[in-house]
Each structure stands twice: as structure tokens, then as C-alpha cells.
């Protein structure tokens, strides 16, 4: 079987496991049902993180979080460079 075919089958298997809410060992994906109460979701996530910490066994690693877990930044729009500011105002120097 070709490499593309193998990847397609693996992707389909991962999608099926994801849809069933099963953990996929390769991607470490766990689906949390949206109707699960918040307290139970928090408990489940904490247990999964604790398991991950135990599995790492002292290795240096960085845990990533979803963008939705990050607090919203209210610093306003990104600052513009002087060239963009001139172009936006319609004036040239």
C-alpha cells in the first residue's frame, strides 16, 4: 500500500476514535463530551494532565493550551508601522 493510502487509513482510524471519545495513543487526543458538567470536565482534564506529568518522568517539556484557555487581551489593535500609518491616512512624505 502506498504511503498516502496508509496515512489516509490512519487518519480515518484517528477520526473514528475521536468521534467515539476514545484516546488515540499516537496523537494523545481525548474527546470530552460537551454535555459533561463543568466540574467533571475540570476533574477529567486534571487527571489527564497528572497522567501526562507522570509519564514524562522528569523530562523537560512545555504543556500547550488551547487558545480559548488563554485570557483575552484587551490592549487594542496591533500598532502599525510608520509606513502603514502613512498609507492608511492617504498622505505621503
Annotation keywords:
single chain; 93 residues; mainly alpha; 48% helix
Number of helices: 3
- The total of beta strands comes to 0
Tell me the β content.
under 5%
**Average pLDDT rating:** 67
| N-to-C SSE string, H for helix and E for strand | HHH
Largest sheet: none
Helical residues, percent: 40-55%
Spans of at least 5 consecutive residues whose pLDDT stays below 50 are: none
- The geometry reads as elongated
Report the radius of gyration as a whole number of Å.
22 Å
What does this structure look like?
By secondary structure, the protein is an all-alpha fold. The chain has a domain at 1-39. The protein has 3 helices and no strands. The protein has helices at 3-20, 38-56, 82-89. The protein is elongated and about 45 Å long.
Short description, anyone?
The protein has 93 residues and is an all-alpha fold. It contains three helices and no strands. The chain is elongated, with a radius of gyration of 22 Å.
How would you summarize the topology of this molecule?
Layout lengths: L2 H18 L17 H19 L25 H8 L4
Amino acid at each position: 500500500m502506498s504511503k498516502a493510502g496508509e496515512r489516509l487509513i490512519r487518519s480515518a482510524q484517528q477520526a473514528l476514535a475521536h468521534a467515539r471519545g476514545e484516546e488515540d495513543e499516537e496523537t494523545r487526543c481525548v474527546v470530552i463530551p460537551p454535555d459533561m458538567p463543568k466540574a467533571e470536565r475540570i476533574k477529567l482534564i486534571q487527571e489527564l494532565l497528572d497522567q501526562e506529568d507522570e509519564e514524562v518522568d522528569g523530562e523537560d517539556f512545555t504543556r500547550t493550551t488551547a487558545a480559548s484557555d488563554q485570557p483575552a487581551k484587551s490592549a487594542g489593535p496591533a500598532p502599525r508601522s510608520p509606513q502603514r500609518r502613512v498609507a492608511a491616512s492617504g498622505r505621503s512624505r
